[in-house]
Amino acid sequence: MYHTTHDTTTVIGCATATVIADTMAERTGGRIMTLELVYPRIIHAEFLTHRVFSRNAASSRATPVATCLEEVERRPYVPSQWLKNKPGMAGGEPFGAEDAAAIASDIKLLRQMTTSVVRRLMERGVSKQQANRYLEPFMYIRTLVTATDWDNFFKLRLDKAHVQPEMYDLARAMRIAIDKSTSVVGRIHLPYIDWDVSGAVGDEDCVAAMISAARCARVSYLTHDGKAPDKEKDLALANRLWEEGHLSPFEHQAWAKFSPYYSSNFRGWSSARRYFSGQD
User: Fold this and answer.
1) Neighbours of 149 (CB within 10 A)
2) Backbone dihedral angles phi then psi of residue 126, each to the nearest 5 degrees
3) What's the DSSP call for residue 82?
């Protein structure tokens, strides 16, 4: 699966984290960060429980079945170790080598059967929003997350004794990527935008925020076919998303406020969704 890589990119086990934008408010010192993440699809629902996060994720509804099949066959998600069942949510001790090998063999058979059936669904013309769902246990997902508050997430998800191993890997990768990152001081936070963003709010900043929103909707600087972005097409996509009410991609761009108080889920920052809606 394609994902952005640079000097903050951190891989821990099955998870990858990269800081896309890191901005420190000029007046309040409040920090807002956007991370691009890749992790097993099986933990996505748990990740969504953290309501201080603004999120967008690459959807299997929008990905051709052939592409999903290729990903599952080339790089399927399989646990690195198998844990014994015990009371409570967390797994117990790992299985021994012989039992673990037998379990891995069963899972490989299950994956081969699943991909075979999904391939037949694709050949019969079944929609990708239905056929791809059966591949999701073996898939990774690419997600964009923006927040000003991270402490509770790390408190819960770096508790190795109680958290699912895949989520622990993700939290560690995120923590290390953030520690590698250096903030840029400014008044506006624009993921996937690579020009100067230190100026005051104005028409140019609003256009940049729209372009950023389109790229956040894709969870990628690049287009779906891997090509360099076209600003005019990005603007057209952003306008269509706004008009149709698909507003979550506008929650990653933000303007610094003059106070450290909350605006929706951001502290000291106000999202483009609120700004464009006339709420701030």
Assistant:
1) 15
2) -65, 140
3) -
Per-residue pLDDT tens over the stretch 1-12:
788 899 999 999
> How is residue 149 annotated by DSSP?
-
Distances (CA, A) of 237 to 62, 71, 213, 277: 15, 26, 9, 18
* One-letter identity of residue 182: T
Does pTM surpass 0.90? yes
**Which distant-in-sequence residues (6+ apart) come within 8 Å of 180 by Cβ?**
7, 8, 10, 19
Q: Which of 274, 268, 278, 276 is nearest to 32 (CA)?
A: 268
Q: Which tokens go with 16?
A: 């990858």
The backbone region for 38, taken as left when phi is positive above 0, alpha when psi lies in -120 to 50, beta otherwise, is beta
- Give the gyration radius of the chain's Cα atoms: 20
Residue 20 contacts residue 4 (beta carbons within 8 Å)? yes
Predicted confidence (pLDDT) at residue 225 exceeds the cutoff of 70: no
CB atoms within 10 A of CB 73: 14
